Amino acid sequence: MTLGFFYLAVLLLGFTLALVTGFVRRLMHPTELCDGVVIPSHEHWFASYTPTTDKIISFATTFGAATFVAHGVAALDPLHELAIGVGAGAVGLVSLRVWVGRVCDPSRALANHRTTGTVVREIPASGYGQVEIMVSGVPFKLAARSGNGQSIHSGTEVSVLDRQESVVVVIPCQA
To answer: What is the tens place of the pLDDT at every residue in 43-59?
Structure first.
């Protein structure tokens, strides 16, 4: 087996795994990318969890593509081709991490005011309750306080006015 064939096999293996596991579909539809991904907030980016299969697919596909192209285009020795492939694989992993971080981070959606949610634990007039907000198809429960100084009952649809650290300020939606 030649090195070119090996590199092509790695590329095809990564691409086939991406198709079989649905990784390609999830990349094309970001709301599905967040399934199985946990990112507490942008402050805890390093605590995020990306499924291992997605990491393997990202590395294998970019490694295979880069080494296959390097082997075919330049007359490099195998060690340099592997170095290029490992570097490309690392770039693929970082790119996946950044993509997942952008898509699945709840604070990104909360930056847009007037995000809506539902009260899941009553918000007293001068205290804290809890709301559930959908971000890219993933439900997040966040601490909340009333923006108008009135209590808000469970089940009420609310609009997010502001975000202060991990607490959102909400008011009931106007019907």
So the answer is: 444 545 567 777 888 88
CA distances from 120 to 40, 42, 86, 157, 163 (A): 19, 24, 47, 10, 18
Domains detected in the chain: 3-104 (no CATH), 113-172 (2.40.50.140)
The pTM is what? Answer: 0.54
